[in-house]
Amino acid sequence: MTERREFLAMAGALMAAPMINRGRFLVFPGAEYSARCLALMERALVIDMLSPLTLNFPLMAKWNTNPELFTQADFDRFRSSGIHVFHTAVGTGGPDAHQSTYQFIARWNGFLAGSDQFFMRIDSAGDFDRVKGSGKLGVMLGVQNSEHFRTPNDVATFYGMGQRVSQLTYNSRNMIGNGSTERRDEGLSDFGVRIVEKMNEIGMGVDVSHCGDKTSLDAFEASKKPVLVTHSNVRALNPGHPRCKPDEVIRAVGKAGSVMGITGVRNFVKGSEPTTIDDMIDHFEYVAKMIGVEHVGVGSDIDLDGYDDMPPEDYKRLKAGFKGSYAFRDKIDIDEVAHPKRMYDLTDGLIRRKYSDDQILGILGGNFRRVFSQIWV
Fold it and tell me: 246, 239, 242, 238: which is closest to 220 by C-alpha?
């Protein structure tokens, strides 16, 4: 029955959409996609392992304070993106890391409770199926730093609040290990090993996206469960960039049976212009060829519109907050995937690269769903 409903919904969409080229349909204004792309997006569970609801921070603060300000029109825009689950992690930290992260998770819980007609929190692998069937949007609560874990017991506290993924470090050093832009990387500390062990015990995902190379490899060695790279890129395709992962880390992802999410951040994808969607898809293909397509996913690292559409002052502050090694250029986004329908463009791009339907469904979300079923137990 589910497959039949999906087929009928797909057929209805195609009947309503004008065919503008052979086998291609104008479903959204100014955007044309293949019939196969539309069918795959209808079937897929689409998980973006790094996508805040908005990079307009004042707007997000208003939604957190008063969830009723998030309207049906807002929901319809998110829903039409084709993304079912948003991992909304941000970087926290500093001297008040525990308190600020506690408040961050609490505000999210308040927002989700106040807009439960639109959202559900993703707490278990079973929620992935439930969210797609519900017609709601799923939000996975994560944090891009683990400085708020003062002791291993704090892992259980934040898990109880709904946190399901924690990146061990952001770009700098903390008591757990070293970030990707630190001058030196001595790997995980003894305390860091204890935190990883507690995360394994509780069932919280260990993420090393922003971690230094040695800290990342140590995490794979210390963890008894698959370690995630939720949003990163391939250093072999962008030599020297600290936010890209070397082959050793990518091989560790495959050995652990885990998944690496690929970003569309311009300066992570390529060090020179032009930088296009095909350059981004090269990163998917590199990882797929090295360790298998079942270990590749999506971690866009943008909201629906991208960084370049942020309020100007916030955009300026964001760029200024990172070291020169981030190598920002005039634009942060890749134009072809810095819009709400980016998953459709990615799907069409993967079709052009001759991936099978099952492989594309895995990349769009099935691979991350599989690994979370192993971690969240």
Answer: 246
